[in-house]
What does this fold into?
Amino acid sequence: MFEKKDEYLQGSEDLQPEKYTVEPIIGNYKQNLRFREFITMGLDSVKTGFNLVCSAVNLKKIWLKSKQMID
It folds into this structure.
């Protein structure tokens, strides 16, 4: 009887969902920049859209740093 219980408990580790945290950067894009949905469908289109969002954020950072250097 105990052998069956050990086998059951051993397999239950695989069934538990993975525990992870959402990266703060992606959370910032979704919450503060209101970029929550992709209009296009398909993985390639979503990757392209997310690359555009990342490029826009990086350009904004460059613009703010250059503005600080001028002042």
Notes: The radius of gyration is 22 Å. The chain has one domain: 2-70.
